[in-house]
Amino acid sequence: MSQLLGVAMLIYLGVAIILVMAELWSSPWMQRAGRGLLWAGLALQSGALIGRWYASYQMAAGPTPPPVLLEKLRLVIFQAPLSNYYDSLVFFSWCLPAMGLLAFRRQLQGWLGAIVAMAACLLLAKASFGGVAADIQPLMPALKSNWLLIHVVVCFLGYAALTVAFGAALLYLIQDYSPREALPALPLLDRLIYRAAILGFFLLTFGILTGAVWAETAWGKYWSWDPKEDASLVTWLIYAALLHARLLKGWQGRRIAWLAVLGFLAVIFTYFGVNYLQSMHAYMT
Amino acid sequence: MSTTKMQAKPKSRLWGWLTSIRLTVFLLLILAAVAILGAVLPQDQPAEFYASRFGEIWGAVIWRSGLAYIYFSIFPPWFLGPVTLLAMNILACLIRGLPRAWRRAFTPLSGEAILSLPPRASLQWPRETDPREAVAGIWRRELGRSRRQILPGKEVFFHETGRFRPLGPYLVHAALLFILAGGLIGKFWGIEGHLRLMQGEAAQSFVVGETEKPLGFQVRLDRFQVQFYEEGGIPKEFRSDLTFTQGGRELKATCRVNEPVSFGGFTFYQADYGTQLKGQVRLQVLQGPRRESLQAPLRQWLTLPGGQGQIMVIEGEANLQGFGPAVQIAYKNGPEHPLFFWVLKDHPEVAEPIGPYQFALESANFEMYSGLEVNRDPGVPWVYLGFILFLPGFYLAFFRPHQCWALVLEKSPQGDWQGRLLGSSPRAREDFDLRQARLLEELKRGTPS
């Protein structure tokens, strides 16, 4: 499994390099090759993900898997490989090309594609070489819930969309600071930031809501002001401000790009930063 | 919500400020800043915690200024202030804009309004061809359900999507108000406590903060089970088999983590489990060559033989971090702060002298308890109503852009048909252009000229 992920990591690195070269030499066939390779990396990583899911299910089911189909399905859902820090890094990295290729098909090339592929590569590198425990651990009782799958999937897809928004914002700020031929035009980037922020905001909201419902059934409190919850609220508020400023106050361009950067810092804090604080999401570390 | 012009009257000026988007964005960013503080600064700790962590002065500042309980502090209202203002801001915007959005969504476009949509293209059909049926087919295929209006010498096809889009933002903001209202209701009328039960034990009250509150019924723990994945590892499952009795009614239910049980207006959540001391503890006290055995009751000060101090047994663990049975003891001699330490039964070698004494644990009895969270929160339905409204609201607001299409067919005095394609979509330009190109292509294919 880890070899597959290693190959996927190298593929993402290759994609980033090819897409940057494609931009520098303005070569359409290299763009196509880069994207094709990104699809290949995504397929490979999906395989690794399913393999780990299967192994995790096997481990939980033991020699006597539940005989009833419904119980089997329940166990399959519980055993999704999303329950510790390593899993989350790998899944975050999977979400980036998946989100990019599915929701931002037309824009995912050149520099933006390279940023997304590079982010996916770095997350896999952190998972593989960052001293993160990679073994499949049995689930603690609090995580045995149907909400685990949907909560985590939605949150990380949201993070991925917000990463795309951040990439576009970064390109916008560079382009704005010193205009370059090779970078996408400003209005295009501006619209992309907005679209990615909407999608990310929606998914983030849905992630927070599912988390709240889960917390209500597990702990009897839909909101406990846990640092992870606080941080997600901060992120949510920043993107809410971005959408309001743009839709109703007519902010565009640089100011929206800076807000997208700020929002992404909050995403990073929500995901990584909280690991250093006392949190009920402690199974993340 | 939209910007408003400054107006002369003070009342409308306040109204303008309250409904302004500038206030909204400002409040959102302020709340974000407050929540960052709340995430970074440990919350709800005792005053001593802040003093030891941040120093005497800063600790006192944090404690006194309410930053230690930032979300609940009423004076100064770090969080409650801006959030109340935000709620007022949202409410004001709802009051201001909802009626118009409602009218727009539920009043179909009038014939004149349709005819005055911006023109996009014109079409011509050769004499002797009646395009009406072909156009109707294309229109249905490309756009789906439509209105068709037949006037003398004129026929209008009309299609509209996202008519309810204007309601989307209001639905989202109403949802937020429901969530905030639910939070408020929970704060005032909710109750949150916990209960520790031993196997076989029954209770008629539970603990809220420091006080006992009656449940109004009886709950008994018939059986408590813990399963482990492997010896000494993390638990696989723990469950409490409970029996509730109220009057003649009896209910048996199993409470697990993630599977709460409700009875008599309260909900029981399996929170944790542990061991606690049962009865008295037998300790050995060594003072120089003297060795004495004594019985220590739970949580009562006991004067030590020789009179050089007092001890109190605070709590016990059947297996303290894998080192076997242990009890925690407080020792004091005179008015100074008591000293807390653990005494391990199986590892007497780690015991350190406490004052002139040394302690060893001879025997202690433990029993397992099941820790239950006991709550009643009448705000939850409101919060969930907000959750449910939020999703369709967001979908309407962002994923159902408003689009109007009209095709006006007219018969000229010469007897040939002419068409005009009209349409508008203020918020989804790209999608609109693509659709227009496809529509025109289809319509032109239908005309042989």
Task: Kindly summarize this structure in a few lines.
The complex is a heterodimer of chains A (285) and B (449). In chain A, 74% of the residues lie in helices and 0% in strands. Chain A has helices at 2-24, 28-61, 69-78, 85-103, 110-129, 147-177, 186-219, 227-249, 254-271.
Distinctive features:
heterodimer, A: mainly alpha, globular, B: 449 residues, alpha+beta, 10 helices, 18 strands
Characterise the protein shown here:
The complex is a heterodimer of chains A (285) and B (449). Chain A has 285 residues and is mainly alpha-helical. The model of chain A has no long low-confidence stretch (mean pLDDT 91). Helices cover 74% and strands 0% of the residues of chain A. In chain A, helix 1 runs antiparallel to helix 5, helix 5 packs across helix 6 (147-177) and helix 6 runs antiparallel to helix 9. The relative contact order of chain A is 0.11. Chain B is α+β, with helices and mostly antiparallel strands. Among the domains of chain B are: 2-102; 124-162 and 408-445; 281-366, no CATH class. In chain B, 33% of the residues lie in helices and 36% in strands. Chain B has ten helices and 18 strands. Chain B has helices at 10-18, 21-40, 47-54, 56-64, 80-106, 111-115, 132-143, 167-189, 380-399, 429-445, and strands spanning 119-124, 147-151, 154-161, 191-198, 202-208, 211-228, 235-246, 249-256, 261-263, 266-287, 290-296, 302-303, 310-317, 326-332, 339-344, 358-376, 403-411, 417-424. In chain B, the strands form four sheets. A five-stranded antiparallel β-sheet of chain B has the order 1-18-17-3-2, covered by helices on one side. In chain B, strands 4, 9, 10, 11 and 16 form a five-stranded antiparallel β-sheet that branches. In chain B, helix 3 packs across helix 4 and helix 7 runs antiparallel to helix 10. The longest helix of chain B has 27 residues, at 80-106. Chain B is elongated. The model of chain B is unreliable at 1-7 (pLDDT under 50). The chains are: A mainly alpha (285), B alpha+beta (449).
